[in-house]
Amino acid sequence: MTINFTSASDFVSATAAKIKSFRSLPTGWHYGQGGPLRADVVNKALEIDGYYRQLGFTTTDAFPGANGELMITAYRELHCIETTLSTDLRYSVTHERDDAEMSATQDVSEIIAKRIINQIGAEIWRSFGLSTESTTTKGGKGSQASRSKTQKVVVFLSFSESVWMPQRSPFANTSAPIASRESLASPRFTGVPSINTS
């Protein structure tokens, strides 16, 4: 079976398709309660599912509530983030690790909810970066375990929060000089903008 996508908008995650289907729930679907979810709740839930995916969570799910609320979940290893969107478009965010509640925030705006999700996601990804058990060579002569490089944090004025930027590796020019004397006017363009971190 071959699936061809002509654009990014042609791809819809299974979770997004499930969320969209909640607009068509029958009245009384939950033991006589519940009905189709409102379009504004469904659209905001689709945004949260997309936000989880932008943060690198590839496993997500969604669950309708009998009172018109909608829960979107994201999973990574032992971690689960649950974002519940109420009918008044307020958010609750819960982070669980190995079924134990790590944090819970109730009744916040979309901006605050996304900030919390971003912080939890950063904590989860950092914990994987510091784990060397599954990536370190065990035993053997000449093998030494070493920590991963620490990433630089760079603040851009156009963003309200810091973003992670990979550190550039040092490089060497191994080609022979073209001219007998290097120009002192400007350095060669490397394709990587220089970033002042001080």
Describe this structure in words.
This protein has 198 residues and is of the alpha+beta class. The protein has a domain at 11-129. Helices cover 22% and strands 21% of the residues. The protein has three helices and seven strands, in the order H-H-E-E-E-E-E-H-E-E. Strands 1-2-3-4-5 form a five-stranded antiparallel sheet. A two-stranded antiparallel sheet has the order 6-7. Strand 6 and strand 7 form a beta hairpin.
Task: Outline the secondary-structure elements.
Layout: H1 14-21, H2 39-54, E1 59-64, E2 70-76, E3 79-85, E4 91-97, E5 100-108, H3 110-129, E6 152-154, E7 163-165
Antiparallel strand pairs: 1-2, 2-3, 3-4, 4-5, 6-7
Helix pairs in contact: 1-2
How many angstroms separate the termini? 53 Å
| Binned strand content | 15-25%
Q: Classify the secondary structure makeup into a structural class.
A: alpha+beta
- Which of globular, elongated, flat, extended, rod-shaped describes the shape? globular
> What low-confidence regions span 5 or more consecutive residues with pLDDT below 50?
1-11, 153-173, 178-194
Mean pLDDT: 74
Overall radius of gyration: 24 Å
Largest sheet: 5 strands, antiparallel
Order of helices and strands: HHEEEEEHEE
Strand order of the largest sheet: 1-2-3-4-5
For the secondary structure, the number of strands is 7
Helical segment count: 3
**Portion in helices:** 10-25%
